Amino acid sequence: MSRRTRSQKSVNTTRQKKPTDSEFQSYTYIKNELKELLWNVSNPNRDARGQLYTQQECLQNNEISLQWGKQHPEYVVKLAEDKFWVIEAKPKTDDIDLAFKEATKDYGQELNKHAFVRAMVATGVAGNDIDRYLVKSAFWVEEKKQFVPIQFEGREITSLLTPEICRRLIHENTPYLKEFDIPDGRLRKAADDINDTFHAASIKKDIRASVVAMMLLSLLGPTEPNYNDTPDVFVNDINSRGYETLKRNGKQDFYKHIEIHLPEKEDAKLKFKEALVEAFFMLRKINIKAAMRTGSDVLGRFYETFLKYGNGAKDLGIVLTPRHITEFAAHVLNVTHNDLIYDPTCGTAGFLVSAFYRVRANSNPDQLETFRLHQIFGIDQQPTVTALAIVNMIFRGDGKNNIVNDNCLARGIIGQTKNGQKTAAFISREEAADEKKFKRVVTKVLMNPPFAQEGKKKAQSHEREYHFVNHALEQMEDNGLLFSILPCSTMVKSGGYKKWRQDLLKENTLLAAITFVPDLFYPQSQPPSLCIIVKKGARHPQEQNVLWIKIRSDGHRTIKSKRLPDFSVPNDLEEVRTLVQTFIFNPIVTVENVPKVQKAAKVDLSDPELELIPEAYLDDYPPTPDDIQQGVEETIRDTVAYLIRRGREGELLT
User: Fold this and answer.
1) Among residues 294, 295, 328, which one has the least CA distance to residue 520?
2) Are strands 545-550 and 598-602 parallel, antiparallel or unpaired?
3) Residues 514 and 393 in one domain
4) Residue 640, exposed/middle/buried by CB under 10 A (0-12, 13-18, 19+)?
5) In sequence order, which residues have a C-beta less than 8 Å from that of residue 116 and are 6 or more positions away?
6) For residue 66, how many other CB atoms are within 10 A of its CB?
7) Which of 280, 261, 82 is nearest to 190 (CA)?
8) pLDDT (mean) for 58-68
9) How far apart (Å, rounded) are the C-alpha atoms in residues 74 and 9?
10) Based on the structure, what is the number of domains in the chain?
11) The CATH number of the domain where 341 resides is what?
12) How many CB atoms lie within 10 A of CB 81?
């Protein structure tokens, strides 16, 4: 609703222009969004915990009505007793600048003429259910006496704000957010919604991830595609923007793997284009442009959600490593800017992203620049998945990193110097076989190799999981650290698996083995898994302890066929990560023996099967008096039953 001029204040409200259906749609949209963002949408005048004034309700606040008279925006959110958030709406997306102007100048600045009451945030919302909605917000800077757009890392926030963001803005007194994150629930919901939208538009499962990748690349420029263009022009524009981004980063060869292709029939083109537009607005709603700059792996979480819960992972052959596991790995290995890291089965680059952000949090800009350009290496065999990994890393400000498309078992990594900077390069397997000729420089490996499928030829030949571990170790310098997820069966099977475990201990040191929860990869069907942490190049000392841990709960819960973080659930990974990191670098530290959970113990070399799994080493709880009593009673019952049975047999014999 437009602001009325001061001369109109006394006009009878019955003569005011009635809101259109489109305006009512925007009212509903705003209120529902605020509720979803966990604002209390009750009227503060009726509910002491309420935060939302609707229409003229705000005028019941004497300080507000003192400045506005009978004028009012669509909504006012109460941030504190003397601090408010003004929201003005318009029914057409073309009027976003007008809505923003009225929110900031006509309402925000007017309220801020008050002696102490302030409109700290002002937001313009424009659109309707058909054309969708645009959002633009600003924060009041007292020194400048003006509103400044709210940003994170140079990217404007494009959605309504959460209570936490508003709290940070006011606490830090700046429109420039130092931290930004998307709640997992919103991110996963957006991914599910995009998947459903693509499904309705008959966009095939196996290209949905690449379509999203190209869309995201097209958003990296200063402007966005014109959503009103014809399907052909619109898609060509997206592709052109994506290609230019890849070219600037020296990765244009991957364009063909994520290029968007329109269907042939006109009706199908329109449907396809509308699905893309809908997805763009969904991405805006979760602030994806700001999220691209975030310090956490928001995009990795988006891919994880979209591929796993959007049913695309199976078609792409991807088994995504959950974010909390990749972050755990980067933490316990203590990845730093001095490391050269490698993931030989990198998928969408989840491990590499987590390693990148750990370095980012603990390095200065020059150290981070060197690390991201020269010390991140990854391979994936599928070209489309490799393209996703490259896009993922481009969002981190680095498209020139060494991620390649190939079978890792056919490649090696050697030390190299570029412009005076130590780095590495990929070479052929044949060249890499000459160990003495080349220097190995990989210091940390983080990986989740593909699990061999029983009954398939590759499981019978050269691509068992441990072959990928062997490959990774071959690329590492002595004393380098490897973190690898493996099926539990790899550490207990006989035959070739047992021979591999024996060879592993002859040439390397096993530092830790950690069993994960059974449903770690849910809803994807994967066998129970664990991770091993290995130090390269030193025979396992017979007297050295290994840290054996069983994770019973990892802070996640399965809800409606999805595995989501839940703070009410214990998180054993969080509890043990400091212990694991400490033990890896100092295996003689004292470790509390917790039955069925953790223990430091030597490898049992007398075990004929050489089972290297926590369950084979962890102690059971000592029996309680009740356990002993129950055991005695069971023994008596079994004995009596046996004697009765034998007595009856004797009677029959006689």
Assistant:
1) 328
2) antiparallel
3) yes
4) exposed
5) 82
6) 14
7) 280
8) 93
9) 16
10) 4
11) 3.40.50.150
12) 11
- For 605, counting Cβ atoms within 10 Å of its Cβ (0-12 exposed, 13-18 middle, 19+ buried), the class is exposed
For residues 390, 392, 398 and 401, what is the CA-based torsion angle, rounded to 10 degrees? -40
DSSP 538-572: SPPPTT-EEEEEE-S-BSEEEETTEEEE-TTS-BH
Same domain, 642 and 504: no
Is 68 within the bounds of a domain? yes
Q: Is residue 310 part of a domain?
A: no
Asked if 411 and 495 sit in the same domain, the reply is yes
Q: Dihedral of the CA atoms 308, 310, 311, 314 (nearest 10)?
A: -40
Q: Are residues 151 and 29 in the same domain?
A: yes
Same domain, 378 and 439: yes
CA distances from 540 to 441, 512, 615 (A): 22, 12, 20
Question: Which element (helix H / strand E) includes 302?
Answer: helix 298-309
What single letter denotes the amino acid at residue 653?
L
- H or E stretch covering 496: helix 496-507
User: Contact at 8 Å (CB) between 101 and 87?
Assistant: no
> How many angstroms separate the CA atoms of 78 and 52, rounded?
6
- How far is Cα of residue 199 from the mean position of the Cα atoms in its chain? 23
Residue 575 in any domain: the answer is no
CA pair distance 358, 341, nearest whole angstrom: 12
Interatomic CA distance for residues 614 and 601, integer angstroms = 10
Confidence band, pLDDT 50/70/90 cuts, at residue 209: confident
Dump strand ranges (E) for 47-82: 52-54, 75-80
Those residues with Cβ within 8 angstroms of residue 101's Cβ, 6 or more apart along the chain or in another chain: 124
Query: Does residue 326 contact residue 307 with C-beta atoms inside 8 Å?
Result: no
Residue 577 lies in a domain: no
Amino acid residing at 196: D
Residues 403 and 464 in one domain: yes
What is the domain range of residue 642?
A: 629-654
Judge if 393 and 469 occupy the same domain: yes
- Cβ–Cβ contacts within 10 Å for residue 561, how many? 8
**DSSP line for 188-232:** HHHHHHHHHHHHHTT--HHHHHHHHHHHHHHTSSSS---TTS-HH
Residue 283 contacts residue 146 (beta carbons within 8 Å): no
pLDDT bin (cut points 50, 70, 90) of residue 99 is very high
155's enclosing H/E stretch is: strand 155-156
Query: Which of 514, 376, 397, 382 is CA-nearest to residue 445?
Result: 376
**Residue 535 forms beta bridges with which residues?**
481, 509
Q: For residue 296, what pLDDT is reported?
A: 56
Cα–Cα dist 78/103, whole Å: 15
Residue 119 near residue 169 (C-beta atoms within 8 A): no
- CA-CA distance, 113 to 274, in Å (whole number)? 45
- Whether the Cβ atoms of residue 190 and residue 285 lie closer than 8 Å to each other: yes
Q: Has residue 624 got a pLDDT over 60?
A: yes
288: three-class secondary structure by DSSP:
helix
Same domain as 597, residue 516: yes
**Residue 474 token pair:** 């071959």
Decide the pairing of beta strands 476-487 and 442-447: parallel
Q: 356-384 pLDDT, tens per residue? A: 989 988 999 999 999 988 999 999 998 88
Of the candidates 125, 153, 180, which is a domain's last residue? 180
Comparing C-alpha atoms, which of 425, 505, 409 is closest to residue 458?
A: 409
Q: Measuring CA to CA, which residue among 598, 601, 607 is closest to residue 578?
A: 598
**Boundary of a domain, candidates 180, 201, 229:** 180
Record the pTM.
0.81
